[in-house]
Amino acid sequence: MRKSSCTMIAAVALWLLCAAGAGAAELGAPGLLRQVTATECIEGGGVIIISADGDGTGSFTTLCRGGIHDGQTVT
After folding, report:
1. C-alpha distance from residue 62 to each of 3, 28, 34, 68, 72 (Å)
2. 22 vs 27: CA distance, rounded Å
């Protein structure tokens, strides 16, 4: 009886992990190129990082770091 209980718990845990992964992909998981607003970044648990491009043109790159939008460009 104990072995079947462990099997059931493992199956449920695997299902939850797969469901969480699918949900993260829909929300914009890291690695997916997508633009987000500053509000989306902060509400998703991230912070906005602004860095100079360094090519002398005065342009900047703005990225979301942390949270569910990690690595995405902030508009």
Report:
1. 52, 17, 13, 16, 9
2. 9
Q: Give CA separation, 56 vs 6, 12, 25, 42, 60, in Å.
A: 61, 54, 36, 29, 10
Partner residues linked to 46 by β-bridges: none
Angle at 24 between CA 18 and CA 26, to 5 degrees: 110
pLDDT digits (tens, 9 = 90+) for 23-62: 444 454 544 568 999 999 999 999 999 998 887 788 889 9
Q: What is the pTM of this model?
A: 0.52
Q: How far apart are CA 26 and CA 5, in angstroms?
A: 32
Question: How many whole angstroms separate alpha carbon 45 and alpha carbon 9?
Answer: 30
Handedness of CA 25, 51, 45, 35 (dihedral sign): negative
